């Protein structure tokens, strides 16, 4: 099955702010960015199923692209940064921060997830999807989920993930 994953458009959040699962606003450039995504997706239709993260930044893009009824699935959420959500990384006063920077794969954020915890929930979604009779699926989601998808599909290793993060409004394709 071919799976097309789209990262949401750019968000109106200052640089360096940790926003993971927080429902943050989109930039004023949303209409322009979303139009480019919609144009790209029109050349790839049809899709047998469309899914989205339940966060507004993904729902708005799905709706703009013609998929207001996309199935919302919380396993497609960005990493949960727990108590660090909406704080600047350089202002987080937490002894776990250094530990997390050293081993984000295994160390969960305070009150949140590690990358492997996020990967497990995303992999659960893809394992369930493998049992469906779809040939082509579209997903609106987040940068961390796209990295998990690439790992799941064997395109990158955990260590290679995040070396080239898909840009806002960007797309990846995987086969599962």
Query: Which superfamily, in CATH terms, is the homologous superfamily?
Result: Phosphoglycerate mutase-like
Instruction: State the helix count.
Output: 5
In helices, the fraction of residues equals: 25-40%
**CATH first level:** Alpha Beta
Element order: H for helix, E for strand: EEHEHEEHHEHE
In angstroms, what separates the terminal alpha carbons? 5 Å
> Low-confidence parts lasting 5 or more residues at pLDDT below 50?
none
Record field, number of beta strands = 7
Largest sheet: 5 strands, mixed
Shape designation: globular
Do you know the CATH topology?
Rossmann fold
Q: What is the mean predicted local confidence, pLDDT?
A: 97
Structural class: alpha/beta
Strand content: 15-25%
Adjacency order of strands in the biggest sheet: 4-3-6-1-7
* Tally of separate domains: 1
Radius of gyration: 16 Å
The name of the CATH architecture is 3-Layer(aba) Sandwich
Summarize the structure.
With 176 residues, this protein is α/β, with parallel strands linked by helices. It has helices spanning 30-42, 56-64, 96-102, 115-130, 143-152, and strands at 2-7, 17-18, 49-52, 71-72, 87-88, 136-141, 171-175. Helix 4 packs across helix 5.
């Amino acid at each position: 099955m071919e799976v097309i994953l789209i990262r949401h458009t750019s968000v109106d959040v200052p640089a360096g702010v940790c926003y993971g699962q927080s429902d943050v606003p989109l930039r004023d450039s949303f209409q322009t960015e979303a139009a480019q995504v919609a144009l790209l997706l029109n050349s790839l239709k049809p899709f047998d199923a469309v899914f989205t993260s339940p966060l507004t930044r993904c729902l708005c893009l799905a709706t703009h692209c013609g998929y207001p009824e996309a199935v919302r699935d919380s396993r497609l959420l960005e990493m949960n940064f727990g108590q660090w959500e909406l704080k600047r990384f350089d202002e987080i006063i937490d002894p776990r921060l250094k530990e997390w920077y050293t081993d984000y794969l295994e160390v969960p954020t305070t009150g949140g997830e590690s990358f492997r915890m996020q990967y497990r929930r995303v992999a659960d979604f893809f394992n369930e999807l493998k049992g469906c009779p779809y040939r082509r699926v579209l997903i609106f989601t987040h940068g961390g989920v796209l990295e998990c998808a690439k790992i799941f599909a064997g395109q990158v290793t955990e260590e290679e993930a995040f070396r080239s993060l898909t840009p806002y409004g960007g797309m990846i394709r995987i086969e599962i």
